[in-house]
Design brief:
169 residues, 5-stranded parallel sheet
């Protein structure tokens, strides 16, 4: 049979009990940026396909606080911002069928994500990417991207979701 590829025979074997509970977990880094929301959407889809428990992690940083630390209601405004962010995230998770948790913590975002992933033996860590460009380059000079630090240091796979969602049909 010259010029004709021979297709291998495919044998499918099914067995064992079906699982009704999540058997893997995933960790998602989340903030209010469009890139993070894109990663959130991708993680919801991928997590559902994998039947994964999702651990959504927000690293509290200066963007969560009002600009003027001397204002009388500074702490109240910060608490309201964090509560609103939690409300948005839990709203997105409401229909997710395989279980989830939401954690907001202080500290280095990469370390926080790695710690949660290690605590739950996560299959992977998912974060969004700000993409490329001069403004992103300047930001990275000041503070290296969380995704880059995770890729360098994490003990488990890191999925960096690009700004483009062209892969979706």
């Amino acid at each position: 049979m010259t010029g004709t590829a021979v297709r291998p025979q495919i044998i499918e074997v099914a067995g064992g009990p079906s699982r009704s509970e999540p058997h893997v977990s995933m960790v998602l880094g989340y903030d209010r940026t469009p890139e993070s929301r894109n990663a959130f959407d991708v993680t919801l889809d991928l997590g559902a396909r994998l039947m994964a428990f999702l651990h959504v992690v927000h690293a509290i940083d200066l963007r969560d606080y009002p600009i003027d630390p001397d204002s009388a209601d500074w702490e109240a405004k910060a608490a309201a911002t964090l509560a609103e962010e939690r409300k948005i995230a839990t709203g997105l998770l409401r229909q997710y069928p395989w279980g989830w948790s939401y954690l907001a913590g202080r500290g280095d975002p990469a370390r926080l994500l790695m710690s949660v992933a290690d605590d739950h033996d996560a299959l992977m860590i998912v974060v969004g990417s700000k993409g490329e460009g001069l403004h992103v380059l300047v930001e990275r000079l000041i503070s290296p991207a969380v995704s880059h630090r995770l890729i360098e240091r994490a003990k488990r796979p890191v999925l960096v979701v690009s700004r483009s969602r062209a892969w979706e049909s």
